[in-house]
Amino acid sequence: MTRIPVMEIFGPTIQGEGALIGRKTMFVRTAGCDYRCSWCDSAFTWDGSAKDEIKQMTAEEIWNQLYELGQDCFDHVTISGGNPALYSSIGNLVNLLKEKGIKVALETQGSKWQEWMKDVDDLTLSPKPPSSHMETDLKMLDLIVDNVKVLKNASLKVVVFDDVDFQFAIDIHERYPNIPFYLQVGNADTTLKDDDILVKNLLKKYEWLIDKTMMCPKMNDIKVLPQLHALVWGNKRGV
Ligand SMILES: C[S@@+](CC[C@H](N)C(=O)[O-])C[C@H]1O[C@@H](n2cnc3c(N)ncnc32)[C@H](O)[C@@H]1O
Ligand SMILES: Nc1nc2[nH]cc(C(=O)O)c2c(=O)[nH]1
Ligand code: SF4
Ligand SMILES: [Mg+2]
């Protein structure tokens, strides 16, 4: 299969999360996920609610749409989902983007390995804490971390909703102490339309996560961040 199931293509916008927070980037969001996180903010990629919007696209078609949207105003593309690591065909897109001089980032939970992941410039692995109701396959995560440790820009990002998640984050950081580590505030209101209330709630949760991190001796060399795009645009899609 040379085509890629694409849910949406958008940008330019800012990377709102993790190591590249604030960086200008385009997004390609694939459809389909092997997980079903209880609080997934992109559940439309896998719950069937937007299945009519999924397009089976070639790498060239994706490039054409990226260029139509971004013209010469971008040099970076983030591939997210769903889980893009379900598809070997994304290797074609990574190669094409590199040919065009575009840097490529990947967002994935670390449940699947693809050879093309070695060619990604900025790799974010986001293993899921207990509140997601998913179980992390640590053997697979070990394998992926081992495969990408040659990459300069691999990082770990754990979303935290509660104390149990925070302990999971500590465990992950201790397991991979040499990979840059990011804590991310969980958004518990992914369907809320009122941005004022949403932002107030998110900033309160951010303060809670900062306080926990400041008092934790095992979390001294990490960064703690909100989802910047949620603070600016709320729960809007395609930003
Ligand atoms: C939608 S996922 C897609 C990529 C991949 N499936 C993954 O989970 O890493 C992108 C990022 O959003 C995070 N995320 C999803 N729902 C969230 C929520 N409600 N609050 C905070 N972060 C969330 C995920 O943990 C992941 O780091
Ligand atoms: N601006 C913006 N930044 C993001 N960082 C990770 C995202 C994702 O859904 O993977 C995301 C997203 O959807 N929008
Ligand atoms: S792994 Fe990512 S896309 Fe899949 S359900 Fe969880 S947060 Fe959503
Ligand atoms: Mg998102």
TrEMBL record:
Residues that coordinate or bind substrate: 14-16, 29, 80
Keyword field: 4Fe-4S, Iron, Iron-sulfur, Lyase, Magnesium, Metal-binding, Queuosine biosynthesis, S-adenosyl-L-methionine
Known pathway: Purine metabolism; 7-cyano-7-deazaguanine biosynthesis
Keyword 4Fe-4S set for record: yes
GO MF annotations in UniProt: 4 iron, 4 sulfur cluster binding; carbon-nitrogen lyase activity; magnesium ion binding; S-adenosyl-L-methionine binding
Residue ranges of domain Radical SAM core in the record: 20-235
Enzyme class: lyase
Keyword Secreted belongs to the record: no
PROSITE patterns according to UniProt: RADICAL_SAM
Highest taxon in the source lineage: Bacteria
Family per record: Belongs to the radical SAM superfamily. 7-carboxy-7-deazaguanine synthase family.
Free-text function comment from the UniProt entry: Catalyzes the complex heterocyclic radical-mediated conversion of 6-carboxy-5,6,7,8-tetrahydropterin (CPH4) to 7-carboxy-7-deazaguanine (CDG), a step common to the biosynthetic pathways of all 7-deazapurine-containing compounds.
This protein's name: 7-carboxy-7-deazaguanine synthase
